[in-house]
């Protein structure tokens, strides 16, 4: 089974990216008998796309033969493409290797639809927003999903993951700023 993971730098020791469409890299992992036999890291050429990054990145994952994709969140467009392509979307946070093995063992559950609101990637500030100034946001929309209550351990793990992602992004920014000088 081929499992893809949205990643920031790529590889089995990287963390699963909290976003899908604009993740910098994708790690493709080949799993047989619940063991990792190989992996490959590819750049996401759509990370800076003006629009449709999730759709195009989803098509790339499908073209690489993945049967499942791990990421922190999936927007509605990418989720729809994956659904039509027969790829399972699996919300996950943590190290790629651990999460791939958890999914292969049946301990992570795919979701049937989006886990993020429309346009959560790079909004251009041209709309009034989902809450329309009334503090409602995504959760206030009719038919929107109700957030599940999570325990302290989950929140602590998410905080660690986000802190590491922030550190990694800060390092990348410093590296890029060094190149521009």
Task: Summarize the entry for a quick read.
The chain contains four helices and five strands; from the N terminus they run E-E-E-H-E-H-E-H-H. It starts with a strand and ends with a helix. With 181 residues, it is of the alpha/beta class.
Question: How would you describe the overall organization of this protein?
Answer:
The protein is α/β, with parallel strands linked by helices. The chain has a domain at 1-116: Dinitrogenase iron-molybdenum cofactor biosynthesis domain (Nucleotidyltransferase, domain 5, 2-Layer Sandwich), CATH 3.30.420.130. Helix content is 33%, strand content 17%. It contains 4 helices and 5 strands; from the N terminus they run E-E-E-H-E-H-E-H-H. It has helices spanning 53-63, 76-85, 96-104, 152-180, and strands spanning 2-7, 25-32, 35-43, 68-71, 88-91. A 5-stranded mixed beta sheet has the order 3-2-1-4-5, sandwiched between helices. Strand 2 (25-32) and strand 3 (35-43) form a beta hairpin. Helix 1 (53-63) packs parallel to helix 2 (76-85). The radius of gyration is 17 Å and the shape is globular. Mean pLDDT is 81; it is low at 120-150.
Topology:
Layout: E1 2-7, E2 25-32, E3 35-43, H1 53-63, E4 68-71, H2 76-85, E5 88-91, H3 96-104, H4 152-180
Helix pairs in contact: 1-2
Largest sheet: 5 strands, mixed
The number of E-state strands comes to: 5
> What percent of residues are in strands?
15-25%
Name the helix and strand elements from N-terminus to C-terminus, one letter apiece: EEEHEHEHH
Radius of gyration: 17 Å
CATH architecture of the domain at 1-116: 2-Layer Sandwich
Q: pLDDT below 50 for ≥5 consecutive residues: which ranges?
A: 120-150
Individual helix count: 4
CATH C-level class of the domain at 1-116? Alpha Beta
Measure the end-to-end span. 45 Å
**DSSP helix fraction:** 25-40%
Structural class: alpha/beta
CATH topology (fold) name of the domain at 1-116 = Nucleotidyltransferase, domain 5
Molecular shape? globular
Provide mean pLDDT, rounded: 81
Q: In what order do the strands lie side by side in the largest sheet?
A: 3-2-1-4-5
CATH evolutionary superfamily of the domain at 1-116: Dinitrogenase iron-molybdenum cofactor biosynthesis domain
